[in-house]
Write a structure and sequence with these properties.
By secondary structure, this protein is mostly helical. The protein has five helices and no strands.
Length: 100
């Protein structure tokens, strides 16, 4: 999903949201099989590669070194990516009727 949408030049936040949604749906469908005792762990692991570690670390480094504007910009970018992941998982959980 991520590769296909990225090749077609979709908005990166939309790519992240759609990838998190797809991963969440797949995991939640597989969780219905008795393969795991901890579905929360499987759901978390499904989007682990989407976590914006580099922008958040660079934001912290820029803020510490005094580059405030770029530090805030990278921090907001990391926050938006995190929100897209959360929204994608929430949509998947809402679609499949998983209680929160």
């Amino acid at each position: 999903m991520r590769l296909t949408m990225a090749q077609r030049a979709f908005n990166p936040l939309l790519v992240t949201l759609a990838t998190a949604f797809t991963a969440g749906v797949v995991v939640l469908l597989l969780v219905r099989l008795p393969l795991t005792a901890k579905p929360q762990t499987a759901l978390t692991a499904s989007v682990l590669l989407l976590v914006p570690g580099v922008p958040l670390i660079n934001a912290a480094e820029d803020l510490i070194t005094g580059h405030l504007v770029i530090g805030w910009a990278r921090g907001v970018q990391g926050g938006l990516i995190s929100m897209a992941i959360a929204l994608g998982l929430w949509l998947a959980m809402s679609l499949l009727g998983v209680p929160r």
